[in-house]
Amino acid sequence: MTDAADAALVEVLLRHADDNTILGQRLGEYISSAPELEEDLAIANGALDHIGVAMHLYEYAAEIAGGDASVDTYSMWRGEREFTNALIVEQPNTDFAHIVARAFLFGVCQTLLWEQLSRSSDERLAGIAARALKEATYHVTHARSWVVRLGDGTVESHTRMQAAIDEMWRFTGELFEPSDVDPALIDAGVVFEIATTRPQWDATVDAALEEATLTRPEDPYQATGGRSGRHTEHLGRLLAEMQWLQRAYPGASW
Amino acid sequence: MSYDVPLAEGESVDEIPVDGDQSTGWQLWEVFMRPKRGLAYTHCGSVHAADADSAVLNARDAYTRLGGTASLWVVPSSAIHASDDPASMFEPADDKPYRHPTFYEIPDEVGQL
Q1: B17-43 pLDDT, tens per residue?
Q2: In a domain, A149, yes or no
Q3: pLDDT tens sequence across A198-226
Q4: Cβ A145–B26 below 8 Å, yes or no?
């Protein structure tokens, strides 16, 4: 591949790696705070899945980029403006309903993404995606079961589940924005246009919301900016906690 | 631990089911795991869950992370009826070796009977 195509692929890999790093860190914050030990395990498992996917993507990106790029330099030595994750994954946990809403709305998009990328002409990327697809499919199963259980539960749980869906909704449009990816990558079948999967996302989400007796939000406002490094105020604090050790003791390892 | 479940407007306490574990309303489920097709399910532990579907998910997260699982069963712990008094139940069998088929050779090719 040409240098330009290499650089474009690194950009795409970092984008998806950042999504998974930040969500993994967010879910990690919640460990020990879930309503029940079993949910704690489920959320910790999910967090580890996300961090695992991110690691494979960072590794691949570092190999292409060369130089001193590594999993650590990508995750620990980049600032807020250099992270290109979607805004939804950096949103605070708030309560269990918000965690479930975020996991579901983002998770459905991830299953569509990994399904696409598992057909990539880039074998390494296709392999990472095929593995991630299985994990993401389980994340959606788990999150969906809670969306339905809480939505179609008591008045209290319904109210809080609806509030969480309403809160997260404004960050879903960004997931399907036409990407500024190098068209050469798309022409070569390395990556695909995620926007084409939007109807499938709508159908899957609508079916779950209906079963959960929840209302699909009509809020037309959609936040954007994550892909170009313009984040909500929550990312900076998350990174401060995630990165402080590497920055205070550079090169620390165990 | 116990706490008052906050009530939303128009909701009564009667609508909130409290079965099993009084602290959460979640009952206990016994988990049985089968390592691969053809082998028997073996008991591997228990989980709390609100219903059978979520018990399967919880069992998956609690017991299958290390791999090597083909399928799971969950059974409400309350449905298990256990034996009692080991002295009269099982010890009478301990001194009756003639009940074991030890008087003829089993060819290796037979494998696990």
Answers
A1: 545 445 557 899 999 999 888 889 999
A2: yes
A3: 999 999 999 999 999 999 999 889 999 99
A4: no
Contact A221, A230 (CB under 8 A): no
A196 in a domain, yes or no? yes
Query: Which chain B residues contact residue A37 at CB under 8 A?
Result: 48
CA closest to A153 among chain B residues: B16
Which of A168, A145, A167, A148 has its CA nearest to residue A158?
A148
Give the chain A residue nearest B26 (alpha carbons): A36
CB nearest to B54's CB, from A37, A45, A145 = A145
Residue B64 pLDDT > 80: yes
Strand, helix or coil for residue B32: strand
Q: Where are the domains of chain B?
A: 13-82
Give the CATH number for residue A79: 1.20.1260.10
Contact A143, A111 (CB under 8 A): no
Return phi, psi of residue B64, to 5°.
-115, 5
CATH architecture, domain defined by B13-82: Roll (3.10)
ipTM for the whole complex: 0.78
Query: Which of A145, A156, A159 faces B57 most closely, judged by CB atoms?
Result: A145
Contact with chain B for residue A31, Cβ under 8 A = no
Of B48, B53, B58, the CB nearest to A42: B58
Range of the domain at A189: 3-216+224-248
β-strands B71-76, B42-49: how paired? Answer: unpaired
Is residue A47 assigned to a domain? yes
Nearest chain B alpha carbon to A160: B8
